[in-house]
Specification:
The chain is of the alpha+beta class. It has eight helices and seven strands; from the N terminus they run αβαββαββααααββα.
Length: about 260
């Protein structure tokens, strides 16, 4: 009782008048953060849905025109934009290719994630993309420096290769247990199934000074008139975008 309308019981200050400008001032930053994070979040959701369909063998590849460098660049760790995650294209002017962007991105992202997890801590993880024009084939290498247990892995020979792409097996836990493989996630197994749906294959080589993951698949050059997959998405989003204005007397904003 006795408080003026719009004043706090603790401070006696007007709430709506002081809070609204601060909220309004912070909106551009919030929208910018959402704009940068939303594509990654949506891509993660789509990848999980795709993995489910691939596991149940109901996924059909969706070929689109793809700029391979743009496709594998970025993510949260600045692939292609830092010295720790360089990208090399051979030749440097690889044409736009007809590929399933979602599957290629899934394979590459998981290969890089595994290289960071099992390779040298803080080591360089390099992506090399080669296009063999005569046989119309894409070859993608993810190369990392040796990590823990690398010598023991080499000693396993072909058994190590089989363990990487086997369902419910984890190579590094095998080294720790010494007797049997330990059940784990099926990331590499799903990667191999992705490759098979594109008539391709995943391989891995454990060499003395590096580990090389290799993905190959057929890839025909795209027609120059076909729209890029990413540009179609961007134009769709931009055409539906509208300026956002904070309503009067707004105290907080939540986006679901």
């Amino acid at each position: 009782d006795g408080l003026e309308p719009g004043r706090s019981a603790c401070e006696g200050e007007p709430l709506a008048d002081s809070a609204a400008p601060q909220i309004q001032a912070g909106v551009p930053r919030i929208i910018k953060e959402l704009d940068s994070q939303l594509p990654h979040t949506l891509d993660t959701i789509l990848a999980k849905a795709m993995a489910r369909d691939i596991i149940h063998e109901v996924y059909e590849p969706r070929l689109e025109q793809v700029n391979i460098k743009d496709l594998v660049s970025g993510y949260a760790i600045d692939i292609g934009h830092s010295l720790l995650f360089p990208i090399e294209l051979i030749p440097a002017d690889i044409p736009n290719l007809l590929l399933d962007p979602q599957q290629v991105r899934y394979i590459h992202r998981n290969a890089v994630s595994n290289a960071c997890k099992y390779g040298k801590p803080g080591g360089v993880v390099k992506t090399t993309v080669l296009y063999h024009e005569l046989r119309k084939e894409l070859e993608m290498l993810v190369i990392n420096e040796p990590g823990h247990g690398h010598t023991e892995i080499i000693a396993l020979g072909e058994e190590a290769h089989r363990a990487v792409f086997a369902q419910g097996k984890l190579l590094h836990n095998h080294l720790q247990s010494g007797k049997k493989f330990v059940s784990s996630g099926d990331g590499a197994w799903i990667m191999q199934k992705c490759a098979k749906t594109m008539k391709g294959e995943c391989q891995i080589r454990f060499e003395e000074d590096q580990t090389v993951f290799c993905f190959t698949c057929p890839a025909a050059p795209a027609s120059p008139s076909a729209p890029l997959a990413e540009s179609r998405l961007s134009s769709s989003l931009s055409s539906s975008a509208r300026d956002f204005v904070v309503p009067d007397n707004t105290w907080a904003i939540a986006i679901d």
